[in-house]
């Protein structure tokens, strides 16, 4: 098995964020939390993940401030996992991954889940990157400045 390398000391915010949430189980756990899962058993049943892997990921996500544990809302002895403000800040990341997959990984007529506005029952708007003055920006309209510690200092066109 390949040993995981920490990206925590990278000067790149993308690398550092991947150090916290970069494996697929963590992102799927976070996704399920946004969908209402709170208990260990709910995450395990929804994801079909092994208990040991789930326990490890949840422990790590709690240590890194994505979740906190609290007494079960029904008064039982169980603990529930609740997204912190830091964890809730990942909502646009989950939406961006969802929209990218809708655009690139599904056939037009292929069945898939959709994210809708609860109040109106219609699909949400597409995410866009915008400048401070409101202009829509493409990747080619941006550049990275500041500390770069990875070996690749410039990005190639997609």
Observed structural traits:
158 residues, mainly alpha, Arc Repressor Mutant, subunit A, two-stranded antiparallel sheet, 2 strands, globular, disordered C terminus
Summarize the SSE layout with pairings.
Elements: H1 13-21, H2 24-34, H3 40-47, H4 51-63, E1 67-71, E2 79-83, H5 85-88, H6 91-104
Antiparallel strand pairs: 1-2
If you had to describe this structure to a student in words, what would you say it looks like?
This protein has 158 residues and is mainly alpha-helical. It has one domain: Orthogonal Bundle (Arc Repressor Mutant, subunit A), CATH 1.10.10.10. It has six helices and two strands; from the N terminus they run H-H-H-H-E-E-H-H. It has helices at residues 13-21, 24-34, 40-47, 51-63, 85-88, 91-104; strands at 67-71, 79-83. The chain has a two-stranded antiparallel ribbon with strand order 1-2. A hairpin with a 7-residue loop joins strand 1 and strand 2. The longest helix has 14 residues, at 91-104. It is globular, with a radius of gyration of 18 Å. The model is unreliable at 152-158 (pLDDT under 50).
């Amino acid at each position: 098995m390949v040993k995981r390398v920490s990206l925590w000391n990278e000067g790149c915010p993308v690398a550092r964020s991947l150090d916290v949430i970069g494996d697929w189980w963590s992102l799927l756990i976070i996704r399920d939390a946004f969908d209402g899962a709170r208990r260990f058993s709910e995450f395990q049943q929804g994801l079909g993940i092994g208990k040991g892997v789930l326990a490890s990921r949840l422990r790590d996500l709690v240590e890194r401030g994505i979740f906190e544990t609290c007494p079960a809302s029904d008064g039982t002895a169980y603990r529930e996992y609740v997204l912190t403000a830091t964890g809730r800040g990942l909502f646009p990341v989950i939406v961006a991954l969802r929209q990218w997959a809708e655009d690139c990984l599904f056939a037009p007529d292929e069945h898939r889940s959709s994210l809708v506005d609860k109040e109106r029952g219609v699909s949400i708007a597409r995410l866009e990157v915008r400048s401070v003055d409101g202009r829509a920006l493409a990747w080619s309209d941006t550049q990275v400045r500041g500390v770069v510690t990875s070996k690749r200092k410039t990005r190639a066109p997609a």
